[in-house]
Amino acid sequence: DQQVKQNSPSLSVQEGRISILNCDYTNSMFDYFLWYKKYPAEGPTFLISISSIKDKNEDGRFTVFLNKSAKHLSLHIVPSQPGDSAVYFCAASGYAGGTSYGKLTFGQGTILTVHP
Amino acid sequence: GAVVSQHPSWVICKSGTSVKIECRSLDFQATTMFWYRQFPKQSLMLMATSNEGSKATYEQGVEKDKFLINHASLTLSTLTVTSAHPEDSSFYICSAPQNSGNTIYFGEGSWLTVV
Prior knowledge:
Oligomer: heterodimer
Strand content of chain A: over 45%
Distance between the termini of chain A: 38 Å
Helix content of chain B: under 10%
Largest sheet of chain B: 7 strands, mixed
Mean pLDDT of chain A: 93
Low-confidence stretches of chain B: none
Order of helices and strands of chain B: EEEEEEEEEEE
Structural class of chain A: mainly beta
Strand content of chain B: over 45%
């Protein structure tokens, strides 16, 4: 049972345009969501997170939107840069401070390619 | 710089031997750390939760006698793959939640190849 799903295996975007990566989840106990960027044979690099009490969080070029009723979140990158090309994972956890905090369930990942 | 450090980055071992991987939190204490495994072209899968001062808790299907976890201090967790076999070849990654910042950091990962 895949509790966190990234239904798009890949996304190709032109430099300067917006990249939108999507993620759906099924477990209503998830309370905290994170996006990571990853290269092969390297650990994930934290990008941005959002708590379920918010519907938007922004950090520079990265914005995460959360639609709790739809159990859907998305990561917007604008403007996209060639250096953003990597695999992007969304992950979900219990609420910060709770016993399951830090125990992440990952989506399958989306390969983002930003063309110059 | 890295806030969670893993060592070694890669290791090759013979079948039947044991391999230890270390995970250290830098500049913060982590009472809980997590170990994940990633096979090629797959997502990261949680193996176990490492608890400082108590036994680790393992996910379903993960053999606790094969993957020994020791959380000896507030900044160090170790994963020992015992009697390694070629099917244990994988990318092993640890993470530590930094509660003060509500962020979960990952180590650089350790690539294990069993020959």
